[in-house]
Every structure is written in C-alpha cells, then in structure tokens.
Design a protein that fits this description.
Blueprint lengths: L1 H23 L10 H9 L5 H6 L1 H23 L1 H13 L7 H28 L8 H11 L3 H6 L3 H9 L6 H10 L4 H12 L7 H10 L5 H14 L2 H12 L5 H14 L2 H17 L3
Length: 290
C-alpha cells in the first residue's frame, strides 16, 4: 500500500514538473506574443478600482476573445517570418561542402520537405516561446542588412560575398554573370559557378549574345568544359562545333576531354565535321589492327 502511494506521489510530482517546465515556455505567457490582450489591457481596463470592477464583465469577455485570436491567429501569423527563415536555412541554404551536383540531387527532397518543415516549425514556434521569437520588423530588416548586393560585392572585389551569391539559388542576370567572369578570368571556382548561372537560363534567342565569349572559355579545365559542352549540345551551337573541331584538329585537347569533344561534334556538328571525326576514328582503328 505504501509503495502504491509513493508511486502516485512520484507520478503526480512528475506531471506537475512537466506542466511547470512546458507551461513556463508557452508562447501565451510572453506579452510580446499577445498584442490583442495587451491592447485590451491598455485601452479597455480602467485604472481606478470601482470602474474596474464595474467594467470587469465587459473587458474580461473581450480579453478572452482577444486571447483566443492571439493564440490561434495573430501569434502564428507573427511567427511566419521565423518559420520561413528556418526553412530556408535548413533546406535551401547551400553548404560550402556540397557541390552543384549534390545540391541538384537533393533538390526534389528539399521541395517535398519544404511544407513539412515550414508547418512543423510554425506550429512549434506558435506553441512555445523559443529563442528567435523577436520583433517581426526586426526579422524582416536583418536579412537585408546581412546580405550584400552582388553588384556591391563585385564593385568592392569581395570574393567571399561573390562566391556566396553564386552558390545560392538566387537568380542572377546572364549579363551580370558575364561581368563576374570578366572580372575574375583566372579564378577557376568563380568562373565555374558564374558559368553555371549564365548558361542555365540561355535559350536559342539569347545564346548568340554570349556564344563568342562562351566558346573562348573552352579547354580551360575539365569542369568548365562539361558545363559548356552541355549548353552547346542543348542549344545545338554550330559555332561551338566549329571551335571544338579546330581544337581536336590541332590536338590541343587532352585525352580526358577528347572523348567529350568528339561526342559533342557528332551530336551538333554539320555533315562535314562529322565525316572528319569518322575518318579520324577509322584511321585510329586501322592503326591498332595487328
């Protein structure tokens, strides 16, 4: 009997402890999270005792309604910027260790998990007064102060800021990407990231504007070549095919890149270019025969 009584007391203490712990962090107990209740208290509750007692039924009823609106509507709306920021940070902020291909592989998962993470974060922040539930205006102002515009970073020669922009999912005009490449012609990392930004939105109408400069970046390094050959094949660039054939004819291409160059010519080249490649392959094949 004494053992059962001890268990009941212990269980009761545990429940009370949980109520105290979780209740103390409940969002409703922070006045910053209940603007309507604060408004009722400020404007509807009389300061003098007698009027305060007389008006009690009115302001208590209004206060209860205000509390419900704060709890289920106003406070969750106030926490939307926090939930949005957390979702972007968790799912959509590129990590330096993750390269372009890795980010693209996880893109479908980021899309699928976005509503789940956003809803869960919003529900948690709406229920509990967690760190970060600060003034909404401050939340909206901070990102603008923290992120340096790409044009400013380029003007100030801020390489770290430029890399951050190029590695993000933010859209950059192709002309601006071209300006970044021109400013850092020997920086392989910036060139590769800027080229990815540049070629992504190109189509048959916009390619001619950048075609000459893109052809000029051929044979720089293997990663750059893969980006360029991809867009040349996608848009069937005849000018690129001619430039690639010149590099193959003059044997300026490494063995590692030669296969990709030849496949590109076979894919987008004219009949004469393709015949040249076939003849060369035949010669090589004949020379290997015993």
């Amino acid at each position: 009997m004494g053992m059962k009584k001890s268990l009941v007391i212990a269980r009761t203490c545990l429940i009370l402890s949980c109520i105290i712990i979780f209740g103390s962090s409940c969002a409703v107990f922070n006045r910053n999270n209940t603007p309507l209740i604060v408004g009722v208290e400020k404007h509807l509750v009389p300061e003098k005792p007698v009027p305060k007692i007389i008006a009690a039924p009115f302001y208590i009823s209004v206060g209860l309604l205000a509390g419900l609106l704060d709890l289920f509507i106003v406070h969750p709306i106030m926490r939307i910027p926090n939930a949005y920021r957390d979702t972007v940070s968790i799912l959509w902020t590129p990590r330096p260790e993750n390269r372009y291909v890795t980010r693209m592989a996880f893109l479908p998962f980021s899309i699928l998990l976005t509503p789940v993470v956003f809803s869960g974060d919003l529900l948690f922040r709406s229920a509990f007064d967690v760190n970060g539930n600060v003034d909404r205006a401050r939340i909206e102002e901070e990102p603008a102060k923290q992120v340096k515009p790409i044009q400013q970073a380029l003007a100030e020669n801020d390489r770290a800021a430029i890399l951050k922009w190029l590695a993000s999912y933010s859209y950059i005009e192709p002309e601006l990407s071209q300006s970044i490449i021109d400013a850092y012609p020997e920086d392989a990392e910036i060139r590769r990231l800027a080229l990815q930004k540049l070629v992504g939105p190109l189509n048959d109408k916009t390619l001619p504007k950048f075609e000459d400069s893109l052809v000029g970046y051929l044979n720089k390094d293997q990663q750059t070549d893969r980006i360029l050959l991809g867009v040349f094949r996608r848009l069937h660039s005849k000018k690129a095919s001619e430039a690639i054939l010149r590099l193959v004819r003059t044997k300026q291409v490494s063995k590692e890149n030669a296969k990709d160059y030849i496949l590109t010519i076979l894919y987008i080249g004219n009949e004469k270019d393709i015949q040249f490649i076939i003849d060369q392959l035949s010669v090589v094949s004949e020379s290997k025969k015993p």
